[in-house]
Fold:
Amino acid sequence: MTQQVGEVNAGLLWKQEHLSPLPVPAGEPASDVLGMIWRKNDTYMDVGSISLSAGWVTLYSMTLVIVCTVIYSITQGLYIAALMISMGSTVLMGFLWKGYIKAYRRPLMPPLRFHRQRREVRIVTPEGEEWTVPWERVHAIAPSATMIGQFGAAKMGGLLLWFPYKHQIDEPFHMNKEGWAIMVSPGPGIAAMRQWECIRSFMEIGPEAVPEPTDVRDKSLRDIFVEEFHKARQHHGLLLTLLWDVGIGQLLFNPMGYHWLHKKKFAVIPDLTSPESIAWSQAIPPEQWAKRSPELEAAIAEREKELEFAATSKLSSEAG
Structure:
């Protein structure tokens, strides 16, 4: 049986929330948590699936902790302990950094192109295979899992976009069905919904409803630093900004190093170049724009009523 929006499959330590089809409002604001929006215009929006920040923060922080531990051991005269930590951590971190560098050097995959006038999605695989999927046949799933370890429980999650192969467009979906999918990790629950809402809002409302693409390619590192410094100062004040964003934050996570990698990685964003994709990407006259299905119209109207009722109830409870 094909799962529909709003359905939830859950187990002991896991849960899967179905956000589409049908693509109704998620009830969360559109937020490009992972910087997935590569380009957009009035006709289409390109979405990419790579995110380098989480790996950078984790690996850089772990490396810094290990280096500090080794230095402290040496200052305390624990030379054997320092040697053992250095040898073990070199093997571990070398393996992890190698994987990160390998992912970083891998060519960017062609983007998913969402054409709001045609209400279709263009898929181009790294091997060059191309096909289109109707927008209302896109499955968005927010899986999450609770990991239990010696330091307690941590909840992890992401956003899964699933597309049927071109010869299976009209076949029903099930969780074991093969298809073409991308998985990103904005976080569980609300974070995944906000990332999905970026895509849904573009297709159902328009380009003005979603954030602008994240673009640091034409900015110097100095411009990026000044821009982020002013934003942080507005939110946190001058003293906290100097202490954290300029001092401790730079030491712990080295965001300027990450921005440098990001700038180099996205110096050239891939485009769809085949004649078929170029022709498909063109704008079409308004009278030829595809329309919502009656099922989606009804589902959106019902969902908007639910959200309006929830908002009214919340205001009433706060007033009371």
